[in-house]
Automatic annotation (TrEMBL):
UniProt xrefs under CDD domains: Ubl_ThiS
Protein name (record): Thiamine biosynthesis protein ThiS
Gene that this sequence comes from: thiS
Classification via InterPro entries: Beta-grasp_dom_sf (IPR012675), Mopterin_synth/thiamin_S_b (IPR016155), Thi_S (IPR010035), ThiS/MoaD-like (IPR003749)
Matches recorded under SUPFAM superfamilies: MoaD/ThiS (SSF54285)
């Protein structure tokens, strides 16, 4: 299947979860926020939140600095 990740096409296996997407992006354990179709999904729900064809996913990573 194909989703839109931060505005760009991104292929994923059918039935992939948010947890799997984040791990595949090497962001597991990092400070990130995720929204699917403009709805924020709490990290506790990522393991069971399956993605579907054409979902629009936005991943924002918190970066410290100053």
């Amino acid at each position: 299947m194909q989703i839109e990740l931060n505005g760009k096409p991104h292929p994923l296996p059918d039935g992939a979860t948010l947890d799997q997407l984040i791990a595949g992006l090497s962001l597991a354990g990092k400070a990130v926020a995720v929204a699917v179709n403009r709805q924020v999904v709490p990290s506790a729900q990522w393991p069971e939140r399956a993605l579907a064809e054409a979902d629009k996913v936005d991943v924002v990573r918190a970066i410290g600095g100053g």
